[in-house]
């Protein structure tokens, strides 16, 4: 199966759907939040690759897994965070806005963050990071499709509201298709990497959740909004990471790690959000 043909198409469709969920009024309201949305957005690209670097230096995974983790960590936020927020009864509008801002900022910030940290990672010192190519692919497969989705929202808001549930279902189906396509192509590599990938995912997810919560705390956000930011830090756009792994780096193993990252992170975040919801129903404090 030709991953380079299927994965970009799926990624573009997913990003269009993300764009249809962005409401301009919600975006402008979020931009006026105390602590500024810019700080929360840029902190992801500054801190998450460093967290991945720490995990790599401590656990010493094989280069293909180290590269996969670093690419995932440097990628923009993933739309799955919106579903986790829905599950935890958090501010979904803020989550959507943070995801969108992360995607727009990625074009300028992600290539630089990845180029700097790759030189410091064990086994990845010689990994070439073509900044211009990364920025171009992010523009083509992330920013433009999200912009197209926002335009559709402006043109046909009533239609999109009416079929909101179906659109959400379609995005999950596309995500499942993405996982299936990569798994079928990289089956043996995935089997060989399961244990190491699980350790990397757990370590990175725990660190990312705490760091996101801490950034929200330092920005003066409410407890609920800090929880949203914690999720935004943990959930990355593995579809875009796969597009870059295949198109820019020519490393399908990086894409295979992204699939394992998403699958192993899923139960961690679901259990975390369910536990938070139960704790919040019992007492008003805590994460």
Overview of the molecule:
The relative contact order is 0.19. By secondary structure, the chain is mostly helical. It has helices spanning 3-20, 24-31, 37-59, 63-74, 80-87, 92-118, 131-155, 157-162, 164-185, 187-218, 223-234, 238-247, 252-282. The model has no long low-confidence stretch (mean pLDDT 88). Helix content is 82%, strand content 0%. It has a single domain, classed as Na+/H+ antiporter like fold. The longest helix has 32 residues, at 187-218. The radius of gyration is 18 Å and the shape is globular.
Q: How many β-strands, per DSSP? A: 0
Question: Mean pLDDT, nearest integer?
Answer: 88
Strand coverage percent: under 5%
Q: What would you call the structural class? A: mainly alpha
Counted up, domains total: 1
What attributes characterize this protein structure?
13 helices; mainly alpha
What topology emerges from the helices and strands here?
Elements: H1 3-20, H2 24-31, H3 37-59, H4 63-74, H5 80-87, H6 92-118, H7 131-155, H8 157-162, H9 164-185, H10 187-218, H11 223-234, H12 238-247, H13 252-282
Helix pairs in contact: 1-7, 1-9, 1-12, 3-4, 3-6, 3-10, 4-6, 4-13, 5-6, 6-7, 6-11, 7-12, 10-11, 10-13, 12-13
What would you say about this model in short?
With 287 residues, the chain is mostly helical. It is built from 13 helices and no strands.
